[in-house]
Amino acid sequence: MSYSLAPAIVRAHSFLFVPANRPERVAKALASGADAVIVDLEDAVPLDAKGPARDQLAQVFSSLTAPERDRLLVRINAAGMPWHEDDLARVRELAAQGLAAVMVPKAESATALAHVAAAIGASCALVPLMESAAGLATLDALAASPQVVRLAFGNLDFQADLGLACGPDEAELVPVRLALVLASRRAALAAPIDGVTASTTDEAQIQMDAQRSRRAGFGAKLCIHPAQVAVVNAALAPTTAELDWARRVLAAYAQAGGGVFSLDDRMVDAPVVRLAQRVVDGAPDSP
Q1: Does residue 48 have a known ligand-binding role?
Q2: pLDDT digits (tens, 9 = 90+) for 220-279
Q3: Do 105 and 198 share a domain, yes or no?
Q4: Where does the chain bind substrate (predicted)?
Q5: Largest Cα span, the chain
Q6: Residue 12 in 3-state DSSP?
Q7: pTM for the complete prediction?
């Protein structure tokens, strides 16, 4: 799997939100162990602080190193909101300086995504955040839009949009999560990013949610507190044993010159080789 646009975002397992109006938290977030950091101009910023938050974002961005910028996303305000176009203008400046990606909330329209892509320039990736019934209906179009590298699930907003009252395991959202995974696969995107766990202190719940994400085919999860990061990384990154198995499969496949072969007294064919490649691609240090 090879991606030229925002490779660190494509490989990331944990995405930690930071409010744009709290710039002192950005460096801490980048040092928290999170694979990627989302500086939020949307929900986390009060209405009367939107303009100053954009300026604070630009100021802190100028202090970041190139590798840190490679791990940074900005969540802008949604299309139709009064701050949207000003957000795009600021993000275009940051994209020219190495901003990796923009998270687009309330993603429901390929046309709106194309407008964002054109406004910010071709060097910056997009991560649409699906949060509504309308977004679910257009998943394939969103996934196929220019500069999109991953889809993300806004699970709490989605529940609110549909009036759902999900249980702790969110079993009601199984078909929605599957739809995100299927759309990502059809568009040849990296595995999607799952939504947040509302509790910041219940480690068992965070772990259960992150393990569910992996079982469901997600490759990453949104985090709202640094305490969630280590749990999410542990649940979603391949284990040492899994990586060892996958690398041995790929090495044996190369030695066999393709076709079906045996490893550890078990048959290995093309689907197993593809699974092994996906495991290696999911490692944090994958090229």
Answers
A1: no
A2: 999 999 999 999 999 998 888 888 888 999 998 998 888 899 999 899 988 888 888 888
A3: yes
A4: 75, 131
A5: 65
A6: coil
A7: 0.91
